[in-house]
Amino acid sequence: MMKRVAKRNKSAARKLQPPCQWPRIDLEDRSAVLHRLRDHFKAEPSELRQTPGFNEVCLGANAVARSLEQDGLRVVLTAHITPLAVLQHVLLHAAIRGIPVLPLCVSSRELGQIFGLKNLLAFGIKGRGEHIRELTQFIIDNAAVPHLPQSYNHHKLAWSRSATEPELKV
After folding, report:
1. Model confidence at 48, in pLDDT bands (50, 70, 90)?
2. Looking at the whole model, is its pTM more than 0.85?
């Protein structure tokens, strides 16, 4: 009897909609961004770390998630992977903070080759430095902030209430 209940819960969970929808970006915009990224980071892998603006890039899905929590990124770019749920937490963080996301629809291998890595699922750009500011603005112009369902906006209401309500003295 317990197995049936567990089986029902699994099938119900599979029917749930994802909490956040991936932004839809034109193919021309994606290819233009990829071209600009390849031009900016075109050094050999051994010399890539000396490329101007490389310290403004956050590589890897976990590093991007940490930087999003600290409000350290201006834009997030992702590869196309089969289970999109792998990057769903990155998408949620970006949607909550209003940071644009650009899904590039390239394989993780192709995205990693830009930075001299074997694979790369996601990377973010901090965009504060002089050398990468123009590239960052170009990417932001072509990216979109993910749509966040109304049910996830409850945290904004809690923050706004706590800022206007006086503290209770004990």
Report:
1. low
2. no
Asked whether the predicted pLDDT for residue 168 surpasses 60, the reply is: no
Rounded Cα–Cα distance for residues 13 and 33 (Å):
36
| Alpha-carbon radius of gyration of the chain | 19
Tell me how far apart the alpha carbons of residues 130 and 44 are, in angstroms, rounded to a whole number.
22
Round to whole Å and give the CA distance between 1 and 8: 11
Q: Is 58 helix (H, G, I), strand (E, B) or coil?
A: strand
The terminus-to-terminus CA distance of the chain in angstroms comes to 51
Q: What angle do CA 18, 21, 23 make, to 5 degrees?
A: 160
Tell me: the pLDDT tens digits for 111-157? 888 888 899 999 999 877 777 888 888 888 888 888 766 655 555 54
132 and 125 Cβ atoms separated by less than 8 Å: yes
